[in-house]
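It is worth pausing here to work through a concrete case rather than discussing structure prediction in the abstract. The textbook approach is simple: state the sequence, then state the predicted structure, then interpret. We follow exactly that order.
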Amino acid sequence: MSKIRTVTNTLKLLYLLGVATFNSKKSECRPLGKHRRIAFFSAFLPPFESGGVHRLVPLIKAIEESDNQCIYYTRKHPRSDRLTESEKFMQSTLPANAEIIRTGTSHFKTINAVIPKVDGGIQSAVAAYYEALSHQPETDVVFASGPSFNYVVAAYLYAVKVNAPLIIDYRDEWTDCPFAFVTKSPFSRRLEKAIVNYATKIIMTTEGMIAKHISSFNQPKEKYSLVRNGWDESLDESNSSEITKHPTISLLKELGKSKNVLLYVGGLGVATPPFEFLDYLIENAKVETLQQTAIVFVGHVEKSYLPLLENYSTKIEIIVQPQVQKNVAIESLKYADFLLLFTNKNMERYLPGKLFDYLKSGTRIINFGCKGAAANILKELDAGINIDPLYPQCYEDILLTKGQNYNNSAQDWLEQHKRVVLSKKILNLIENLMN
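Step two, the predicted structure:
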């Protein structure tokens, strides 16, 4: 029986994907029904801890505080019964009354060899599609946020089925993404094109991403809205004595007594290699200045990077600390002399999520890499130094800017980019489709 079900599921999924890729229908705003109903799809919600999750929590709170009725469809956490402390903290940020349906790959088994690959895997997402049809045979608006984009596919399938308008929140690019960690293929490109054509509204986080998307998919400019990632003031726990006693913060305090502390907080991986920056320091700084500098990486580090960082540590002090809770990470930013960003050419259209938390701290920022979205904001707010690898500044000159304040417009900019403010902007876009 299980084999028959697997074959049946495979045929269902192939049919769904085939219809989806060749659908030419466009969504339309329909008259508001008796209820203000939203179907909300995202591959990741708490207790997952990715940067995109932090963007969505304030939006979920705003929806739950409104007159709307919403059901949220997401992945089941693989360790839901064995969460870490930081994952438990993330779980606690969700409103208690939010109705969340969690699905896993076990809910919809298929013959994987014949299923086209979609970013994030399609099986759990299709399970979410069927759950949505079961829980919400009708809805007024479908909202989907990615990456991963498998749940955007599920949202699209569902929106077409129930004839509802679709809003896509691109926290990152899909088939336009220059990084290998997003699954791309000719099939995915065709699928994204169908989804984008159907969507009523598309949200993106930078002007560069919007321009690229319009060019790639030949969409009208008025379909797009700019909503940046922003920062979350609810996690600003600067007065908590318990947080300031955390080992990572104690380390930064101690280092700061005798060193210039350069701090990087967040995942250090294929999109953010630090080695060109380390080479710059070693080549452009005096030996005695290097001896007075410590670089601290807080967060997950790509495994292959660890021995390389150890090699560099013979010339400059490098300390790697494990990932910490978000509120600890935010507090740690205040105990560095400079905060580090690495923006290679592939990051030109991107604003790293950490940039907003960096800016909130008031600590000056060193952005090493390309001109682009992040460099433009640092220049606009006079919040730090942009180092072009082709024309690098003297490191000692950069140290002279330590402790300088941002310009007068920085505070207003930060107020406008609170996540609670940006979440209301997204909620307004959702509600406008129901009015």
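Step three, interpretation. The longest strand covers residues 69-75. Residues 2-21 form the longest helix (20 residues).
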